[in-house]
Amino acid sequence: MRVRALEQAAPVLREVCAAGYATGAGPRFCLVHPDRSVDDNNVFALAGPISAELGAPVLAAFQYDGDRRELEVWRDGVRAHRYDSWPDRDNEAANDAPVGANPAAFLDFAAGPVDSHRQASALADTPIDAEDKDVDGDPGYVWAQALHRDVLHALSHPNQAIRRAKWDYYHMRGAPQALSEVLDSTELVVLGTAERPF
To answer: Rounded to 5 degrees, what are φ and ψ at 79?
Structure first.
């Protein structure tokens, strides 16, 4: 989940998030990694209250089983946009086209110049880079992480922030050494009942 700069957002995050971690993601953004096993503490449940309290847009992201990515944009406590890379995943007869592939919906989250072609391609589930294409010849990304990476890359986020954005609460708790490397001296804020991972 992407929200305002960490120092501005931390008081609200401590109030709203029952358990999780937050890290910086550049001068205007931070990442929130809530413990989704706690009731009403997943990214989509928290995005509305956080956007309302901060008065800033929030981008909530969730990945299902490595092959489906959902993104929601929240403004002033209301969901303003929803993207789903594979909405009918469980219905084999359905159309596999993403829903909500509107690049303009994500412009509030640009950290610099926007690569419109890469962003539109990623949201359309059409990878530009050959290594991200399905080896079986099926259209689309092999992994939803690559789609998310391309969306954030198109919005000019640095590689370190993109690497941290791919992690969730369980990655952070389960791999303290790797987390320490990914943080690369970036502050880690412990939220609610979460324990410090290292």
So the answer is: -70, 120
